[in-house]
Every structure is written in C-alpha cells, then in structure tokens.
Design a protein that fits this description.
- This protein has about 400 residues and is mainly α.
- About 65% of the residues lie in helices and about 0% in strands.
- The chain contains 16 helices and no strands.
- Helix 2 runs parallel beside helix 10 (about 275-295) and helix 13 (about 330-340) packs across helix 15.
- The longest helix is centred in the first third of the chain and has 32 residues, at about 25-55.
- The two termini are about 40 Å apart.
- Mean pLDDT is about 80; it is low at about 1-5, about 10-20 and about 300-320.
Amino acid sequence: MSRVRRDNAPVPGEQGIWHPDRVSPARIDRALTALAVTVAALCATGAAAAGWLEIVTPVAARPAPLAWAPWSSTVPGLALAAAGAVLAIRLPRHAMTWILTAGGFVSCLNGVAAAYAVWSLDRHGGGLALTALSLYAGARLGPFLNLVPPLVLLFFPDGRLPSRRWRWAAALSLGGTALSVLVFLTAPWRILDTTDPWPQLDLGFPQLPDAVWRAALAAMPALLTFTLIVAVAAFVARFRGSDPVRRAQLRWMLLAGLLNVALLLVPAVFDGLPPDAAFVAANVALAAAVLVAVGRYRLYDVDPLLGGTLLYGGLATSRPSREVPFPQLTAREREALDLIAAGLSNRQIAERLVLAPKTVRNNVSAVFAKLQVADRAQAIIQAREAGLGR
C-alpha cells in the first residue's frame, strides 16, 4: 500500500504518483471558490463587452431571432453569478452557490452571444469566427433561465428538498422544465417562428414530424406551470414546518417572490415601461434575496417589510404555533441542537449555518452545559424526544 504523508507531500521514491486521498477538502473548497469567482469575472467582462456591442450596433440590425435587448440577459446573469461567487467564498459546496453560478453563466452567455452575432452580421456580414454558434446560442439559450426560480424554491435555503417525500414531485417538475428547454433547443426554427424560418438555427436532429414538435411546444406552458406550482408548494411546506430561525431565512425568499410579482406586473399597469427592465429587476431581486438569506439573514430584519402582507400572514398562521422546546437555549443553540439530532457533525453544522467552526464548537458546548449532558449521544436522545432532528 502506498504511503501518504500527513502534509500531502510526495513520499520519497513515489514522485509522480497521484493519490486521490491527498486532495484535501480545503483544497477542493479553494478550487470551487476560484471557479465560481472566475465565472463571475467572465460574466462581468462579457456583460461589459455585450453592452459596448449593443451601443455600436443599431437596433434595426437585429435579425428576427435576436430581436431583443442583450442586456436583459447579461445584467441578471451577472447578478446571479456575482451572488454565487460571494456565496462560494463562504459556502463553496452549497447547492445555492452553483444554482446561481450556473444560471448566471448561461444567462450571460445568451446575451453575449446575441450581441456578438448581431454585430458580426451587421458589420462583417456574418464572416467573423463563431458567428453561427453565437447566433444559435443567442436565439435559443434564453429559456434556460426558467430553470433557476424553481430550483431556488425547491432547494432554498439549505440545498435540500423539504423532505424525502418531495423527491418524485421535484424530479417530475424539473424534468418537465428540462424537457421544455430541450424542445426549444432542438425544434426546427420554422416551428418556433412561422414567418421567418432561419434554417441556420436548426440542428437537424432529432428528425420528428412537425405535428410532434407543435404538440411539444403546445405542452411547454403547462409543463412550466406545473414546475412552478410544485416549487411554490415545496416552499410553503418548508415554511410551515420550519422553526423561527429557519423562517428568518425563508422570509427573504418570500420578499423576493412578492417583489417579482410586483415588478412583472408593472409593465402591464404602466404603459411605456419596458418589460425587459422589469424582468431584469426581478432576477436581480432574486439573486440578492438568496445571497442575504443564505449568508447574512441574521443581520437584517425583514419582518417590517412583510408584516403587513396578506400572503405572509396566511403562511405564518396556517400552522398552529408549537411550544418551543428547550426554552433555556438561544435560537442559535437550538438550531445547532436540531442539526446535532439530525446527525450532522460540527463541520457540517458550520457549513449549514454559515458560521466559523470555533463558533459552532462554543455553541455545542453551551448546549451540553444547559442540557446537563455529558456527550453528543445524550444530547441527541433529549433532542429527538422533543421532536428535533426530523
């Protein structure tokens, strides 16, 4: 068996041999953080470049498949990627980090590709490199952003579903959305736009009758609606079953949802306001809410913003209030005890609560002292008898 030194340095006589167990968790975390920050930097550069290309290219030069403003993809994409990068610094393995990072990257890529394709077609007759690929990405990648809100609602704030019972519903809803995106990526453009076929945008596969494509496109609104309903239902179930500490995080997402509805209704109420601006503002609000809720929800009180809303009142009162177990514990200590009862280690608790490991150790010690228990096993028994850790 190969010998591995504790400092991960090569053992004499074994230079050049790679040992998987030498890759420490800290090194993996640093690599993930660097990747998320790099993606955010690329999105910032791409957004700036797309903005410049949009300024120097007249609106009239946009072909039918790209007859939209690229900034409406690059700006929300940059907001999502930036939020993902900030989360990656503290929580490089958190699901929210990579939902935001991936969603932001694809959204930015969509806007940058559209701006580049329009510029190439207008100024260079489409002769620049990657024009055809950029035209395809700019015309077809937009619906990928539809995956971000349901993913956030399903896995917010801890990166897990509300319970194991939601696995099949989540798989069906996300599968339906993914199928809708796949249809939009591969359907012949003549089906999507009967007035301007643009065969350059067709992959040529799969070869299906036009009736099948039309039926698939007709089903897309129903699939997306089903996905949203499941995601909202999962969020409501999580909210109703949460303790006060977890609700402090969920309220931020509730605020983002209310802002999204309000912003998307603005163009319908006020004539002359561009729908693109409302869409961008809604996605920026979503990114900000996730960032604050996952990383810094204890620093800000969102109740004054939500207290007067009928929706929040309905959610908060839909479940009878339960007697808080272990009143001698602080809210943070009770949350730590709940996670101990769920079987999490101190390191996992630190990642979940976005706390330093030393802070978690201090909280755990305080819990043991207040419960008058000698070890973790005794604390778990008391916690589970009180209904924690489920």
